[in-house]
Amino acid sequence: MKITCSDCKTTLGEQTPFDDPFKIYARCVSCLAKQKEKASRFTPEPKPGQKKEITLENGMKGVLWVPESKEEKLSLGELAVSGKRCFCSKYERVKCQNYLAGLKDEDVDVSFLHSMTCKIETSSKSRKKKQDPPKIEEPKKDDSINYNCTIRAPKHYVQLIFDDMAERMDRVLEILAEASLKACKEDRQKANTNDALSPMSGSKELGNPIS
Ligand SMILES: [Zn+2]
Fold it and tell me: Given Cys at both, which of 144, 165, 188, 194 links 88, Cβ 3.0 to 4.6 Å?
C-alpha cells in the first residue's frame, strides 16, 4: 500500500501489503506547512489592547482591534462612524446622512464587526486522574471575542457601506421571517392533523396525514 499526500499526491512511502493498490492518505510536511500558513492568514488575532493592520477584500486597509467596553462592541448590522454607533436600516438612513453631513472632515473612521471567535471546550474530564482533588469550577465567562475593524474612508463611501449593510440586514430579516412563518405553518398543520386523528389511531399515522 502506498502512502500518498492527499494534497500534492506525492508518494510518501509504502507499507505492507506491498501489492495492495489501496492508498493511504496523509499529508506531506510541505503541504502541512502550507495548510497551517493558510489557516493563520485567516485568523485575525490581535490581543486586547493591540491593533493589527489588515487588507480587506476590496483592497482597503483596515485595523483590527478587540472592543473591550460594552459601548465599543458592535453587533452585526451596526456601524460606528467617528465613534457614534448606528444601526444600518432604511429607517435610519436619513439620520446617518445628516450625521455624516455634520462631520467636518471629509474622511471619517468607520468601524464594523469584522469577525468573532469562540472557544470550544475540549473535554478534559475523561482524562482526569482519580487522585485529583475536586476542582471548583470557575464560573463560565463569555469566551467569544469580537474583532472590530476600523477603516478610514470618505463620507460618501461610508454611506455606501451603510446602504450595503442595511440591504443585507433586510435580507437576513426576510430569511428569518420566512423561516418563522414556515415553522408556524408547520405547527398549525401538525395541530390540525392531531385534531383530525381519532384517539384510537396509532402514532404511525402521524407521518402521513394526507392518506
Ligand atoms: Zn503534499
Answer: 165
